[in-house]
What does this fold into?
Amino acid sequence: MSGIPSGTPSGSPSERFIVGVDIGGTNLVVGAVPVDGGAAQAVRTRPTEPHRGGRFVVGRVARMVEKVIDEVSEAHGVGREAFLGLGIGSPGPLDRDTGTVIETPNLGWQNFPLRDLLSTEVGLPATLDNDANCATYGEWWQGAGRGVSTLAGVTIGTGVGGGLVIDGRIFHGASDVAGEIGHMTINFEGRRCRCGNYGCLEAYVSGPNIAARAVEGIDLNPDSILPDLVGGELDRITAATVYEAAVRGDAYADEVLSETAKILGAGIANLINLVNPEVVVVAGGVTKAGEHLLRPLRAAVRKRAFRSAVDVCRILPAELDATAGVVGAAGVFRSSLADGPARARRPLDDASSVP
Amino acid sequence: MSGIPSGTPSGSPSERFIVGVDIGGTNLVVGAVPVDGGAAQAVRTRPTEPHRGGRFVVGRVARMVEKVIDEVSEAHGVGREAFLGLGIGSPGPLDRDTGTVIETPNLGWQNFPLRDLLSTEVGLPATLDNDANCATYGEWWQGAGRGVSTLAGVTIGTGVGGGLVIDGRIFHGASDVAGEIGHMTINFEGRRCRCGNYGCLEAYVSGPNIAARAVEGIDLNPDSILPDLVGGELDRITAATVYEAAVRGDAYADEVLSETAKILGAGIANLINLVNPEVVVVAGGVTKAGEHLLRPLRAAVRKRAFRSAVDVCRILPAELDATAGVVGAAGVFRSSLADGPARARRPLDDASSVP
It folds into this structure.
């Protein structure tokens, strides 16, 4: 179904890999991706523990990269020269040209030269791009959006993020902000958002806000199984609890998801009217709600977007799930090869490198 | 200031021109644009009179084109071979490849082969693109957005339209819808829009809706000069009346414009977060309000969009005004020359052509 080859070992020495690194506020994910495409292999996940500092995180990632390289080398009978480089995805904002994370509240980094530190530590050239862009690009390269020209990604998690692929490349805009759908105003008189504004999409449809909206109405819905799922402790209700209740047939949870779909649908309709993509990939925990969310979501989009734009656009759940960021980061490194060496930093020219 | 050469005649026979045609629901505008750029010359405007049918409109435009060609030929001492072709802008949706207007309620056309009819009638190759795209492209090529890579255009008139230029080319998306900002939801519980949905940007900030919102609150603002400007007949208040009152210092009209700016600002902030352009050009009658609108608009955008996107984005009034569509349509034809002959229909290969 997915068309992604499984990571079966092959002894061919001509195989080449790129190591993808996905740096998140909670977890680090690293894996190797065949340069010609395929699933991430030897995927490893470890906690980020950002409070231990940037250098610690770089060291931990470097060790994960070495283990991934060792495992894939052994499985495929290839040497270190089969690993072309590192693609790194990180929360931003960041400066892709210098490979620097300008600022990221979740990790506490400021002007942190992530790409070059990691490149030097591992002894491989590296690229850096935004985590949401990488996840979107992963779905375009090897996931739900393979083969299309224009794709938009929307990730529903603690926040709401997004990215755009136009003509098969990440579209960054003038200052790497392009694709930011989370703080799109969909009700200028609406619900307060943690960003300080009112009525952002995220203020309604992020995981925590889906949970908060479910809790708000629970007293009026005594038949709901939601309280039972959390042993009566309502503050333990998360978006995942709501998805689970809906899948089990809970009418109130289904209603919360229908409302979520209507609001998310207005946001995605705005995206479709502006960017007119062939595919919108919806990623994150919200996909666990499956058709309980997607069916009303597609109906809401159809109600609000231009028909000629809706008719050519498929709204699909993500396929790569937890490895989209790893695959996409590797894909960004790969596309830097096509652009010539200038886009990736090559530490082997650097005396301080550790090959 | 504008950097646009004025249309001073020059006898150089090496000069080449493209005729731009802007077809609107009310007026037809035609002018000649030097192929290397410059202001539209010999600009002519006539009523569209769409009720007389598509063939009538094509005939009227063809006669306007001939007069423009005659006038420019005489002024510049060039022959007909100096006119390379026609760029046509029309309301849509349309099929650019076949040069057909699929449907346009304002003109009553359905599957109307506008490009080829006009190309044959005039005996010049022609291109067809959406009117809002052409106006945006005109501002990019010769107007407020010269020299930038990524630009968004928003036109406030009877409706609210828009277009995108990415990497110096009109971005059409998968089905020519891209850039449609008018029916962006900015309040999913909001004001009814003529499209049938609720809370579209157009439902608040189109000319007729600015006027309607002003009339709604007028009883509570007895000091306003608005009724005086229309001889007490409130149903004669238009957006232009509101702009005029604001410019004359009317506090209530200024309040209506501030509210308009806040809402339009939310829409433009959404556009900036998604597309991250270097310039947003605001066009249409609304620019007559000048800084009464632009100052609160910029503040509203800054409040709602990502700082790193706002910092690189200038929000500017259109420079070309009524000729943006003509200049942009000519620019679209010009870029078809760079793409090779396949993009423009060449009637001179056609036995039925009238050279």
